[in-house]
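Tokens in:
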């Protein structure tokens, strides 16, 4: 398979969900910049608190911070056989910075209409401990408020509120969508329809990655 893979797609398209389903097949780490910021906040660091101000407004955290964090992360030993990047890059300058850091062998674009994004984000719940993603209607936990995988507490993300969702989708349209053309031009863009069930979308992605 392609080694270094980035996942593109609007908020709620299912990037985190799909990677959670397939990463063990490939034995490479799932690197989510959003999860890294949330983890820093949980640890109570200044860095996490600063990032949260941007996240709660639905805005992007400044590029220098985000690019530095990714540069350091992909240099670690566990990325030697590749990685699955989720939520990075999100604008052209991040895409160009990533090209300077390492080669990207595939960019998977998970495509869904905005109405689907809105419905999915509104019902999302995530485990505080292991990060597993659920949905009240589409991917319900067996027991309300409790993670099936580790028994941790499920919570709603602060940025899954209507105003922040609208801002995130607007930034996706203006800043992130152009990255698909960037990866298309270098011949690594692979598009999948994200509107099926999580298992259907995961199967399509596996087929594309080989
Ligand atoms: P981040 O955590 O990356 O959030 P996001 O981009 O808003 O994307 P989501 O996590 O909302 O969507 P997803 O595609 O992963 O969907 P999921 O699988 O959870 O970033 C958060 C913030 O951090 C940013 O706004 C920004 O402030 C900052 N940040 C992060 N990266 C940055 C960067 N590079 N530069 C600057 N700032 C950055 O699925 C959603 C829901 O749908 C779930 O409930 C799930 O159960 C359900 N679902 C998934 N797939 C399906 C399906 N096929 N059918 C039915 N339901 C489904
Ligand atoms: Mg995500």
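Residues out:
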């Amino acid at each position: 398979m392609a080694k270094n893979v980035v996942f593109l797609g609007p908020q709620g398209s299912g990037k985190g969900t799909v990677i959670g389903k397939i990463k063990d097949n490939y034995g490479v780490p799932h690197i989510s910049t959003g999860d890294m910021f949330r983890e820093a906040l949980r640890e109570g660091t200044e860095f996490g608190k600063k990032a949260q101000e941007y996240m709660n407004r639905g805005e992007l955290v400044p590029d220098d911070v985000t690019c530095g964090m990714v540069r350091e992360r992909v240099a670690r030993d566990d990325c030697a056989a590749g990685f699955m990047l989720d939520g990075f890059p999100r604008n052209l300058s991040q895409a160009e910075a990533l090209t300077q850091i390492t080669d990207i062998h595939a960019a998977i674009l998970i495509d869904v209409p905005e109405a689907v994004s809105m419905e999915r984000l509104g019902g999302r719940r995530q485990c505080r401990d292991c990060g597993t993603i659920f949905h009240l209607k589409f991917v319900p936990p067996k027991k309300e408020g409790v993670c099936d995988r580790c028994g941790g507490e499920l919570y709603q993300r602060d940025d899954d509120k209507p105003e922040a969702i609208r801002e995130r989708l607007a930034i996706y349209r203006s800043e992130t969508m152009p990255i698909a053309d960037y990866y298309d031009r270098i011949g690594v863009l692979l598009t999948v329809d994200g509107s099926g069930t999580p298992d259907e979308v995961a199967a399509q992605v596996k087929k594309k990655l080989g």
